[in-house]
């Protein structure tokens, strides 16, 4: 595959400008909600939720700035999508059309919180909590749309790659696996902090914790599986093809050793056949290659970290219930 020259991708102004506005609005809403709560309740009962959700918003904003040039560099490695990496990055992080679905997503999350009503014993706090949740989920909704668009391009481009089963460290496969691992770990961290904020807050809302935990786990699994499973299937098909080719050559060598003529469909002269030892060594090497996960240590490390992060809220919840 022809290598593309290094590309320089600018971070879309839409993300830096309006993402920054959302971050500022998040901090403002956190302060307003905290002040109103203290005025009505006399104490800040959900300080962990306020702090961790706000931290999540800042982290997502900064992670988008970190991710944009790396996504552009990856897109440039693909045959079709790489023709204009900047346009692809603008579609992920700089498309104003994502504003409406982001508002709908944030509205659904805020409405879910309204229906669950964690402040049912305190009149007047729910609108402020829902407003706080709504503002912070605007950037989450934008990222969800960006992820869906990124997956669509990756899935359409995978079939155009010249993937070689004996060299998975070639671009863009290794770049895709590394970038996806970073996205999965960031998603796991964000969901972990969100659930942790719920667990540590003074709410009597077991159903909401279960609901959001299940939703968060589904998002993390999808972030990992959507790009990795199709790539794994493609690698498995390539592995099967290569094993079939080598097995046919081994069979040809065995036929020669037993005095039988070569098969007519072999398509190779006797003197061009590799030695039997080299063929069996190549076959054994192929059999050891893992296609799921395709990145070996990269994918396994990401999965291990994600699993650990996913269990942190449960561990802390159990510890606090046992000790206090």
What order do the helices and strands come in, and which of them pair?
Elements: H1 13-41, H2 47-75, H3 85-93, H4 99-116, H5 126-158, H6 173-200, H7 206-257, H8 276-288, H9 297-323
Radius of gyration, Cα only, in angstroms? 26 Å
**Largest sheet entry:** none
Tell me the domain tally. Answer: 2
Quaternary state, please? single chain
Q: Give the total of beta strands.
A: 0
Please identify the structural class as seen in this structure. Answer: mainly alpha
**What general form does the structure show?**
elongated
Average pLDDT metric: 83
Percent strand equals under 5%
Residue share in helices? over 70%
- SSE order, as H and E? HHHHHHHHH
State the separation between the terminal residues, measured CA to CA: 61 Å
Count the DSSP helices.
Answer: 9
Explain this structure to me?
This protein is mainly alpha-helical. The chain folds into 2 domains: 1-162, no CATH class; 178-324, no CATH class. It is 73% helix and 0% strand. The chain has 9 helices and no strands. The longest helix is centred in the C-terminal third of the chain and has 52 residues, at 206-257. The chain is elongated. The chain starts with 12 loop residues before the first helix and ends with a helix. The mean pLDDT is 83.
């Amino acid at each position: 595959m022809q290598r593309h020259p290094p590309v320089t991708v600018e971070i879309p102004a839409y993300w830096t400008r309006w993402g920054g506005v959302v971050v500022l609005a998040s901090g403002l809403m956190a302060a307003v909600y905290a002040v109103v709560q203290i005025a009505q309740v006399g104490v800040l009962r959900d300080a962990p939720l306020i702090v961790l959700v706000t931290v999540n918003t800042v982290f997502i904003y900064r992670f988008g700035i970190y991710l944009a040039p790396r996504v552009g560099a990856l897109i440039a490695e693909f045959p079709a999508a790489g023709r204009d990496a900047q346009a692809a990055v603008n579609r992920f992080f700089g498309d104003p059309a994502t504003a409406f679905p982001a508002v709908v997503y944030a509205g659904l999350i805020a409405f879910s919180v309204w229906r669950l009503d964690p402040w049912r014993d305190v009149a007047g706090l729910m609108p402020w909590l829902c407003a706080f949740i709504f503002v912070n989920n605007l950037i989450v909704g934008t990222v969800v749309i960006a992820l869906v668009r990124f997956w669509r391009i990756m899935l359409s481009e995978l079939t155009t790659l010249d993937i070689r089963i004996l060299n998975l460290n070639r671009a863009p496969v290794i770049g895709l696996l590394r970038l996806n691992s970073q996205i999965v770990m960031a998603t796991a961290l964000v969901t972990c902090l969100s659930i942790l904020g719920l667990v540590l807050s003074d709410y009597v809302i077991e159903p909401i914790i279960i609901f959001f935990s299940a939703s968060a786990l589904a998002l993390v699994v999808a972030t990992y599986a959507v790009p990795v499973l199709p790539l794994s299937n493609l690698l498995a098909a390539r592995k099967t093809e290569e094993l079939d080719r080598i097995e046919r050559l081994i069979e040809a060598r065995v036929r020669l050793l037993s005095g039988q003529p070569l098969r007519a469909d072999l398509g190779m002269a006797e003197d061009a056949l590799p030695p039997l030892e080299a063929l069996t060594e190549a076959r054994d090497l192929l059999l050891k290659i893992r296609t799921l996960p395709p990145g070996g240590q990269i994918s396994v490390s990401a999965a291990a970290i994600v699993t650990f992060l996913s269990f942190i809220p449960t561990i802390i919840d159990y510890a606090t219930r046992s000790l206090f």
